[in-house]
Write a structure and sequence with these properties.
GO molecular function: large ribosomal subunit rRNA binding; structural constituent of ribosome; zinc ion binding
Number of helices: 2
Helix content: 25-40%
Strand order of the largest sheet: 1-2-3
Pfam families: Ribosomal_L37ae
Strand content: 5-15%
CATH architecture: Single Sheet
Structural class: alpha+beta
Largest sheet: 3 strands, antiparallel
GO biological process, one term: translation
Number of strands: 3
Keywords: Metal-binding, Ribonucleoprotein, Ribosomal protein, Zinc, Zinc-finger
Distance between the termini: 57 Å
Organism: Piliocolobus tephrosceles (Ugandan red Colobus)
Order of helices and strands: HEEEH
Radius of gyration: 17 Å
């Protein structure tokens, strides 16, 4: 099949509706939503979104809770930086 959307990409399904500023924001969200992420358990890039906030690794079959559109939201990444690692 030929490529039908040059600029808009994944948000081409909305056609001429809603305006450019909105589809630019939606494009950023939908690209991160459909991307595959690295699993923190097995290290493979197999973590996919199943539903809002539910992420599943196809390799090790672990299911974890995460952000709504991307695996780690901005607050989650920030809080992980502030948690000290346990001393052994």
């Amino acid at each position: 099949m030929t490529k039908r959307t040059k600029k808009v990409g994944i948000v081409g399904k909305y056609g001429t509706r809603y305006g450019t500023s909105l589809w630019k924001m939606v494009k950023k969200i939908e690209i991160s939503q459909h991307a595959k992420y690295t699993c923190s358990f097995c290290g493979r890039t197999k973590m996919k979104r199943r539903a809002v906030g539910i992420w599943h690794c196809g390799s090790c079959r672990k299911t974890v809770a995460g952000g709504a559109w991307c695996l780690l939201s901005g607050r989650m990444e920030h809080s992980k930086l502030n948690i000290p690692e346990p001393r052994i």
